[in-house]
Each structure stands twice: as C-alpha cells, then as structure tokens.
Design goal:
The chain is an alpha+beta fold and 225 residues long. 24% of the residues lie in helices and 28% in strands. The radius of gyration is 46 Å and the shape is rod-shaped.
C-alpha cells in the first residue's frame, strides 16, 4: 500500500519525468527512458515500441557516467607550453590525465590530474636552494649567511681564507669570493716610495753641498787681490 501511495502521490503532485527510476532519465515530453551507458550518449529517446538508442562518443570526447545527454564531454588538452604532458590518453569513458613536465610543479589538481602548472622558482645569486622543486612543490630559497657566497644561486660556499703570505686584495660578498694576492708585492710597493724619497733627499743635500762649496770658492776668488 505504501509503494502504491508513493507512486500515485508522485504522479499526482510532481511534473512528468521527475519520478524516473535511478537508471532512467526524463525526456522533454515527460517520459522516462533508460539511460545510455558510459562511453555513449542518447541518439534517440525511447518510445512505446523501442528502447533508448545510444551512440559511442567520437575521438576527442568521452562520457564517464550513465546518462541521458545528447553530447559527450570534450577531452582535456595537456598544454606543453604551460608545463603539462599527457600521462593517460583520453578514451571514450575517461578523460585525459595530465602530469607536469620536469622543472614545473602542479598548482591545481582535479579529476584530470594536474590542470595548472608553474615553473619552479630559480634562486638568484646570493641565495641557495634549501628544498629542490618537485612535481608537487615549488623550490625554496634562502640567503647565504655572512662569510659565504653563491655565484649561481644553487649552493653557498664559504669565502677563501688567504694564507699568511697573501693579502686580501678584494673583500668577498654574497655573490663573489674573496680575492687573495701576494703580500710581498704590496710591501715592496709600500717601501719603494720611501726609498725614492730618501734617495731624493740625499741627492738634494749633495747638490746643495756642491752649490755651497762653489759659491764659497767664488767668493774667495773675488776677495783675492
């Protein structure tokens, strides 16, 4: 009695087609027809004399569920220009599954796998990679600590320590190493100007002594009758 009441109530109070059974679909004229299976769509609705006529999805389209639709879904395109490649090819019952190319990571997942990818962050000179990028995570960077440098933004290397016989010609930075050179050369360069100065003083004194002597002799000659 309850089942009869439900059916009669449905027929009396609801619009035609809204009481179709789980594997049926309502038509535009209010009839209930059997659904088409996965991989197919409705070509013609059922009639009192025949069942639903279905047709297969064409290449580039799919249908992944029982349905009463007249159009298949378009297969997803994996755009290599945006870091994606085809992991599983689309069939008449399944959509394309995309995966990310090396050097990219997936920003958004859905039923088709990865639907949006982005290139890994490139660490700049003066930084190092703390976490390499994967297909699911971006790369992580951090600045080199004091006393270290990174020329290409990969690893941090400690500055070169100049030996006891070397002088630091150029200080290191976060992107360049210390430059060392021969310290004796610099001592020579520092001593050389002093030697030249001393030699110049001696030369001037000698020249002055000679000049004074000449003047004295000249004065004596003038005084002699």
């Amino acid at each position: 009695m309850l089942a009869v009441f439900v059916v009669l109530g449905c027929a009396a109070f609801l619009a035609p087609g809204l009481c179709c059974r789980p594997k049926e679909y309502p038509t535009t004229d209010g009839q209930c027809c059997p659904m088409c299976s996965e991989g197919t769509i409705v070509q013609r609705d059922c009639t009192s004399r025949s069942g639903t006529r279905c047709s297969r999805c064409k290449n580039g389209t799919f249908m992944n569920q029982p349905n009463g639709m007249g159009k298949c879904f378009t297969c997803t395109s994996c755009d290599s220009g945006h870091g994606l490649f085809v992991l599983h090819v689309c069939s008449d019952t399944t959509d394309t599954v995309c995966e990310v190319i090396d050097g990219y990571f997936c920003k958004h997942f859905d039923a088709t796998g990865c639907s949006a990818a982005q290139t890994h962050t490139h660490c700049v000179p003066g930084e190092r990679i703390t976490e390499p990028g994967t297909s699911r995570e971006d790369a992580q960077c951090e600045p080199c600590p004091p006393g270290f440098f990174s020329e290409h933004g990969v690893n941090c290397t400690d500055w070169t320590t100049c030996s006891g016989t070397q002088a630091r010609l150029k200080e290191g930075s976060s992107i360049t190493d210390v430059v060392c050179g021969d310290s004796s050369r610099h001592r020579y360069m520092l001593i050389l100007p002093g030697s030249l100065f001393a030699a110049l003083v001696v030369s001037l004194l000698v020249a002055l002594g000679i000049k004074v002597k000449q003047m004295k002799l000249s004065s004596e000659n003038e005084q002699t009758p």
